[in-house]
Amino acid sequence: MMAEEILQWLREDMPHWDLTTDALGLEDVCAEAVVVAKSRAVAACTAELARALRILGLDVEAPKKPGELVEPGDIVLRIRGPAGLLLALERTILNLLIYAFGVATQTRRMVDTARRVAPGVRVAATRKTPPGLRVCVKRAFAAGGGDTHRLGLSDAILVKDNHVALVGDYGEALRRVLEQRSFMHRVEVEASTPEEALTAARLGVDAVLLDNMSPDEVRETILLLEREGVRSRIVVEASGGITPENIAEYAATGVDVVSTSYPLLYPARVDLSMRMRRLDQC
């Protein structure tokens, strides 16, 4: 639950008490804080953050919903409550929103770029998220128009290179997971060559992830699957080194999904600020 995570982040920033707020006698003053955009961005995690802050006893309005475009001067959040709590949470709230907005904004740019050449392609997120921020980051990616992919290891079966290395054989690893899978869980497997992708398709996996292939190698793989008559029954995903500069080239290969960690690792630069004013009553 995000409310619990916010309290944990607050303990990191304020392990005992806020010396400045205490010295100024502002702990019990009623106040209103507004988070204001200072740059153009895509809103993200505002609804989740508002729910969490309400659990902590604050009165919160979220004028900008996740996925909405935000312009400079727009109010993103309006929060009312004890000034001491608002001042303590200020940096945590801004840090979280700036990162989430940055992820959503970068995602929107990459989705738009990919869909200009392949309108039906999905742009999906990897699991390369900072610890503790998985839910917010995945929601931010979705707010930008992306697909969340797996939220965690319990969502689906994805056989990767290290699984194969430990089993000792590519085909045997696939046969094991196909025998054990639930009807609720899809099975995807990494493939580093066109031949591995063909093997996976013939064995009956739901999706194949073409790992660190060049666009030409991706096209070659798709042509092989088409020649063998198995392309239509498998989802093909390209992953590894996907950036704003090359995502269009990968999307144009004919894959169903392009997955990337770029927006998570390099979010767009977003500027937000928090302004406060004293109230007569909370």
- Indicate the low-confidence ranges by residue numbers: none
Helix content: 40-55%
Structural class: alpha/beta
Main sheet, how many strands, which sense, barrel? Answer: 6 strands, parallel
Strand order, largest beta sheet = 6-11-10-9-8-7
Total of DSSP H or I helical runs spanning 4+ residues: 11
Count of all domains: 2
Give the CATH architecture of the largest domain: Alpha-Beta Barrel
State the end-to-end distance. 26 Å
User: If you average the pLDDT, what whole number results?
Assistant: 92
Classify the fold: give the CATH topology of the largest domain. TIM Barrel
Catalytic activity: nicotinate beta-D-ribonucleotide + CO2 + diphosphate = quinolinate + 5-phospho-alpha-D-ribose 1-diphosphate + 2 H(+)
GO cellular component, one term: cytoplasm
Family: Belongs to the NadC/ModD family.
Enzyme class: transferase
Could you name the key traits of this structure?
single chain; 282 residues; alpha/beta; Aldehyde Oxidoreductase, domain 3; TIM Barrel; six-stranded parallel β-sheet; four-stranded antiparallel β-sheet; 11 helices; 12 strands; elongated
